[in-house]
Protein: Type II secretion system protein
Organism: Pseudodesulfovibrio piezophilus
Amino acid sequence: MTNLIPYFAAAVGFTSVLLAGYGIASYFGSASDSARLRERVSGVPAATTSSAAFSDLWSKFSSLFERMGARISPKESEETGKTRIALIQAGLRAHGMATRFQGAKAVMAFVLGGGFLAFRFLFSPDMDLTYTSFGTLGFAAAGIYGPEFWLKKRIANRQLAVANELPDALDLLVVCVESGMGLDQAIERVQRELRNSGPIISLELKILTLELRAGKGRADALRSLSERVGQEDLSSLTSLLVQADIFGISVGRTLRVYSDAMRTKRSQRAEEKAAKLPVLLLLPLITFILPALFIAIMGPAVIVLIDVFSQLNG
């Protein structure tokens, strides 16, 4: 009877995998049928089956995060405003994104901490209570502060992309302004021209154009642009444009001077990275290349010395 246990386990596993595959196939099939039905009713081409299924799954997770975040998010408007500004600077502008972010942090803390506890009770039941407590707290803290680290990294990458795209946008602005366009028309033209080569700065300039069309003052719209991006060079540019608008200074001359300064700064940033490269290569050189080189050079001599000393001792 005991010899039949492996075959019984294999049959149970095969049946489970078969049922799981059938369930997944039926789920994607129903999603495809509903997508085709929506396409036939609305006349709009629907997305592919996999993208529709993943979007449905993501919407479920988003609703879960939003419900969780609504319960644990801070009630102070100042803290909520800081989180919202950070998400906007990272390019995440969806409605309720701050609440979802807080909910995602809570869910990740619960999942990581609970996963560590499950691992402890299933695979290491003899673990000390102190290590269990510290491990649970450590994984829960990773779930809380991990999204914060990811958000800061995303903001830094986006600001670096804006810093690299800004000189080209300024050159186009100079050309448009000096050709006789107004500043609002020049901004609109530049955001159209930079859709492919500078998508981030193009999106921000498009939002600026929409705000100007909606009747927002130019100074307020420029300050909103600076707050949305949070990049130092762009903030300085918006301050210069606001001052030029207030005091009646030539916008074209201001843009040309600042464009030259930005291009020089971008070149200096590239030279700084090139100067740091030998120092960054030093660690992998010492860790990986030099030991292999010493083994290849000194290895035969060490083998010969070992043979000589063994013969002397013999």
In short: Residues 160-267 form one domain. The chain is about 85% helix and 0% strand.
